[in-house]
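User: Need the bound-state model for biotin:
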Amino acid sequence: MRRNISIVVAAFITLLTLWTGTAAAQVCPGESTWKNQRGSTLHIEDIDTEGKITGYYINKAKGYACQGTPYPVTGWVLEGTNTITFAVKWENTVENCSSITAWTGFFNKDCDRLTALWQLVINGATDPSQIIKGMDTFTRVTQTQSDFIKKK
Ligand code: BTN
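Assistant: Bound-state model below.
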């Protein structure tokens, strides 16, 4: 009888945690490629055991400089969750835009979409109103598409 009660209690707790979402320990894949609505691509090369991201970003957004070449990405995912932040300093051997963008957002539960708000600061800004803000929605690119993008 006591055993039955334990089983019922355990089942109830499992259902409750699933329902409230507290048991949704989600880990999206490390190495992956993402493309946003502006045509830019985020290439995550590694997420280490502490959640630190390394990779590169290729900007293809209309109306912005520093286009078409890779810029290093650093960032974090909160391990076991769907939250992510990453940043790009727009400086490489090809072009220096004297600016930095930071994105913060989340993966959806299927790990195939990443929604993030961003802020872009250009060197010389002296007022918060000069910080450019926006939202990017990234869709996960398949391995084949990713290989194609890399060859381009
Ligand atoms: C610059 O123009 O100073 C550097 C390039 C900025 C590109 C921005 S970052 C946010 C938005 N999302 C993109 O994919 N590109 C633009």
